């Protein structure tokens, strides 16, 4: 592991790439898709919810853009500190490198 995240990478991306996290996300996605396929009513409710979340997310990103630009140096420092913390966790907890089923 590296002690500072590359500029294009952030701590969230690193966490999502951990096998234990990515395998959990894949399992949840499969269960969600399976539930939508087997229950048509649930599928329509989920689709409405998904569209609402996408719209709210886009609106939030548009509104937050000036704040994010202004706080970018602080975010970079926080990201680097979080990456160092993640390096420490990866060293101390080897299970993070394995999928959930292992």
TrEMBL record:
Pfam families: Perilipin. The keyword Nuclease does not apply. Keywords: Lipid droplet. One of its GO terms (cellular component) is lipid droplet. One of its GO terms (biological process) is lipid metabolic process. It is found in: Lipid droplet. Its main location: other. Belongs to the perilipin family. This is PLIN1 protein. The gene is Plin1.
